[in-house]
From TrEMBL:
Keywords: Amino-acid transport, ATP-binding, Nucleotide-binding, Transport
Species of origin: Salipiger thiooxidans
CDD domains assigned to the protein according to its UniProt record, in alphabetical order: ABC_TM1139_LivF_branched
Matches recorded under PROSITE patterns: ABC_TRANSPORTER_2
Family designation: Belongs to the ABC transporter superfamily.
Superkingdom of origin organism: Bacteria
UniProt xrefs under Pfam families: ABC_tran
InterPro entries: AAA+_ATPase, ABC_transporter-like_ATP-bd, ABC_transptr_urea_ATP-bd_UrtE, BCAA_Transport_ATP-bd_LivF, P-loop_NTPase
MF term (GO), any: ATP hydrolysis activity
Gene Ontology BP annotations: L-amino acid transport
SMART domains: AAA
Domain ABC transporter positions: 2-231
Protein name: Amino acid/amide ABC transporter ATP-binding protein 2, HAAT family (TC 3.A.1.4.-)
Length: 231
């Protein structure tokens, strides 16, 4: 289980996160939501070692992930699919996927077939440049690249942003499939309310760098959550 406790984060003098706490269990989807600029991406960046946090703690199965850099966080099993996808535009799909090998031993430098079962289009486009894919295909590539690391924690930052509805549905199915494997904790940062409402096992609404509301599916009130996201 990933556990974030009382996390604070600054950019220079400005404090963005003011003591965020959440947990993400294997085999569950934890949705983090909130309006623009409340600190959702900053939270993921702190977990992924992309930006240092100022205080609080992050642990994975009780083991502290003390201020790791991005490579160390990857080695520890944390995969991050950034907002905007960050696909390498001049590299082929195959080469983009292979960048996921960086955190794996040499013996595991092979793209597993199940990646293409999840995202069949990538097999057809292996030699196509990343920059020539549609936004939806790039999103699939970004998720596939993260999965190659065999993560224990998958961080998804607004995977539906700017994506056409049929690909959104496919991404939803993939997230459900990954959940049902039972071994990966998935943190889904998402503003598309109905998408995350239908998918997540628990919810954390963030306002101004703090947790404003949290709870499990079936227990949390839909309208109360929606109100926090629509301010
Ligand atoms: N590198 C940075 N330097 C300074 N301020 C930053 C930096 N990155 C983000 N911020 C500021 O931190 C705040 C939180 O940004 P963040 O991207 O974490 O929010 P968010 O909830 O993910 O927003 P969005 O939904 O628009 O992506 C914003 O006010 C943003 O302008």
């Amino acid at each position: 289980m990933l556990s974030v406790e009382n996390l604070t984060l600054h950019y220079g003098q400005s404090q963005i996160l003011h003591g965020i706490s959440l947990t993400a269990e294997p085999g569950k989807v934890t949705a983090v939501t909130g309006t623009n600029g409340v600190g959702k991406t900053s939270l993921l960046k702190a977990i992924a070692g992309r930006h240092p946090y100022s205080g609080g703690s992050i642990t994975l199965d009780g083991k502290p992930l003390d201020h790791l850099n991005a490579f160390q966080a990857g080695r520890a099993g944390i995969a991050y699919v950034p907002q905007g996808r960050e696909v390498f535009p001049l590299m082929t799909v195959q080469e983009n996927l292979e960048t996921g090998f960086a955190c794996l031993p040499k013996s595991e430098h092979k793209v597993p077939e199940h990646i293409f079962e999840l995202f069949p289009i990538l097999k057809d486009f292996l030699q196509r440049r990343g920059g020539d894919l549609s936004g939806g295909q790039q999103q699939q590539l970004a998720i596939a690249r993260a999965l190659i690391m065999k993560p224990r924690v998958l961080l998804l930052d607004e995977p539906t942003e700017g994506i056409q509805p049929n690909i959104i549905q496919q991404i939803g199915r993939v997230i459900s499939q990954l959940r049902s494997q039972g071994d990966m904790a998935i943190i889904l940062v998402e503003q598309y309310f109905d998408f995350m409402w239908g998918l997540a096992d628990s919810f954390v609404a963030v306002t101004r760098g703090e947790v404003a509301l949290s709870g499990k599916a079936g227990e949390i009130d839909r309208e109360a959550l929606l109100a926090k996201v629509s301010i």
